Amino acid sequence: MATEQATENYTVEDLVALNPYNPDILNDLEKFVNEQVSSQTYNLDANLSLLRLYQFEPERMSEQIVARILIKALMAMPGPDFSLCLFLIPEHVQMKEQFKTLIVLSHYLEFWDEAAKNRNILEVVPGFEQAIQAYAVHVLSLTYQKVPRPILAEAINIEGLSLDKFLEYHAANSGWIIEKGAQSQVIVLPRNEVNHPELKKNAADTVPFEHITRIFPVLS
């Protein structure tokens, strides 16, 4: 009853300011995350408070809510929000597929943002962007069996008709298969010993995920 009265009399921001470690506000903070998604607003402090509460009460953690917090943090880049949030999420949760995807995506975004800032340095060497795009595709092939079109677009920094041509080229020359997904196209990548472990001949050939996540912040 006390929690209901507090919710009625205070905003979520007030509740966080008064006592950010109060487990009674956890449900309010989860609802607030969904409100941020539906209203296209953002409150980093409230989201960090929720992640801290999850640390104290891991059995109450909602992976769906955590994923939404990370996506909102990605949208705030190049700010440090994503790293601040990720620091509060247990490693075993980070290793789940949807969170691995967001972590890899964060590195793509960081790389292209830094590349844009340093274009005057990079443009003196022709072919740099194309080489990094090729490497991004290589990394994706080590991480995914299927890649949603938006993830690929962020990874190689190409959109629209240019991306259509890029997909057509690789469908014709690299064995890519383009499928229609529920919300966007899905690119099926060729099978290899990393994205299809059953093909693996030697465990020593495995590329650890932590190596992949270090690839893209090369300019920072």
Report a brief summary of the structure.
The protein is built from 13 helices and 3 strands, in the order ααααααααααβααββα.
Structure description:
- The chain is mainly alpha-helical and 220 residues long.
- It has helices at 2-9, 12-18, 26-39, 44-56, 63-75, 81-86, 91-94, 97-117, 119-122, 128-143, 149-156, 160-173, 209-212; strands at residues 146-148, 177-180, 185-188.
- It is built from 13 helices and three strands; from the N terminus they run H-H-H-H-H-H-H-H-H-H-E-H-H-E-E-H.
- Strand 2 (177-180) and strand 3 (185-188) form a beta hairpin.
- Helix 3 packs antiparallel against helix 4 (44-56) and helix 8 packs parallel to helix 11.
- The longest helix is centred in the middle third of the chain and has 21 residues, at 97-117.
- The protein is elongated and about 60 Å long.
- Keywords: Cytoplasm, Initiation factor, Protein biosynthesis.
- One of its GO terms (molecular function) is translation initiation factor activity.
- Residues 62-186 form the CSN8/PSMD8/EIF3K domain.
Strand content: 5-15%
Instruction: Please bin the fraction of helical residues.
Output: 55-70%
The span between the termini is 50 Å
Which regions are unreliable across 5 or more consecutive residues at pLDDT < 50? 1-7
**Radius of gyration, Cα only, in angstroms?**
20 Å
Tally of helical segments: 13
In which order are the strands of the major sheet placed?
1-3-2
The oligomeric status of these chains comes to single chain
